[in-house]
Amino acid sequence: AAVEPTELLDLAVDLVRRAAVLVGEQRAAAVASVETKSTPTDPVTAADRASEQLVVEGLAAARPGDLVLGEEGGFRPVGAEAAPDAVRWLLDPIDGTVNFVYGIPAYAVSLAAEVDGVVVAGVVRNVVTGEEWTATRGGGAWRDGVRLNGSAVTALGSALVGTGFGYAAQRRREQAEVLLRLLPEIRDIRRIGSAALDLCAAAEGRLDAFFERGLSPWDRAAGGLIAEEAGLLFTGLHGQPAGDEMTLAAPPALHPALHDALIAAGAQP
Ligand code: IPD
């Protein structure tokens, strides 16, 4: 029988809570030995790896035939071998690693479950505040028991827009050019430092919208479902499903204006 999204969410919530406790406990030791990954600006710590290991071991114990795509360990079976009906889990063991290293209270554990290529359940938990956002496909988006509906702002000039930058210098130059033209058209920009928390903030209306180019699947999977289930459009630049290029999350009434402004600002797909 097909697995229920709520069953996958329950497992995800349990593992993310445990991983968040571990990340909190390991912070002091982890920041003492930060390494860098893709570029000198891209940090990774022992806590990223320990959090990933805890979640993958928990998945292996509960669902040994599943697959995981984790930021630190890549794509692999959680156990000895993948089953034909494997669920694919998308895991960011610490989203917002730079905030984690600096002690800025905006870093999260993010875990989503994908069935037949569709994300059906997701959870994002802020390690410091304990705020937790969840969604199942068709079941709405929730933060700590409160249902989320996104922002009601419709005018771009009143929109507080979240964004983020990857770690590569050339991409940052391009993004700075886009911001140069977009910033005068909107209320303001927030660069919170965790794409997962940005997407949850947009789901909740703490941001009116969010865009970022170059996100990875583990950054956007859980937060994207939470945004969609809060009624936002979660797309690529031209309305296609969000992919590895531009990701846009905005309420339907704001999405066209943000789309047009991004195009006018020279954003790449
Ligand atoms: C990063 C954060 C950041 C975003 C980057 C991501 P990490 O994830 O989500 O806000 O701008 O694109 O790579 O490296 O902290 O897991």
Automatic annotation (TrEMBL):
<feature type="binding site">
    <location>
        <position position="95"/>
    </location>
    <ligand>
        <name>Mg(2+) 1</name>
    </ligand>
</feature>
<keyword id="KW-0479">Metal-binding</keyword>
<feature type="binding site">
    <location>
        <position position="94"/>
    </location>
    <ligand>
        <name>Mg(2+) 1</name>
    </ligand>
</feature>
<comment type="similarity">
    <text>Belongs to the inositol monophosphatase superfamily.</text>
</comment>
<dbReference type="GO" id="GO:0046872">
    <property type="term" value="F:metal ion binding"/>
</dbReference>
<feature type="binding site">
    <location>
        <position position="219"/>
    </location>
    <ligand>
        <name>Mg(2+) 2</name>
    </ligand>
</feature>
<dbReference type="GO" id="GO:0008934">
    <property type="term" value="F:inositol monophosphate 1-phosphatase activity"/>
</dbReference>
<protein>
    <recommendedName>
        <fullName>Inositol-1-monophosphatase</fullName>
        <ecNumber>3.1.3.25</ecNumber>
    </recommendedName>
</protein>
<keyword id="KW-0460">Magnesium</keyword>
<dbReference type="InterPro" id="IPR000760">
    <property type="entry name" value="Inositol_monophosphatase-like"/>
</dbReference>
<dbReference type="InterPro" id="IPR020583">
    <property type="entry name" value="Inositol_monoP_metal-BS"/>
</dbReference>
<dbReference type="InterPro" id="IPR033942">
    <property type="entry name" value="IMPase"/>
</dbReference>
<dbReference type="GO" id="GO:0007165">
    <property type="term" value="P:signal transduction"/>
</dbReference>
<dbReference type="Pfam" id="PF00459">
    <property type="entry name" value="Inositol_P"/>
</dbReference>
<feature type="binding site">
    <location>
        <position position="71"/>
    </location>
    <ligand>
        <name>Mg(2+) 1</name>
    </ligand>
</feature>
<dbReference type="GO" id="GO:0006020">
    <property type="term" value="P:inositol metabolic process"/>
</dbReference>
<feature type="binding site">
    <location>
        <position position="92"/>
    </location>
    <ligand>
        <name>Mg(2+) 2</name>
    </ligand>
</feature>
<keyword id="KW-0378">Hydrolase</keyword>
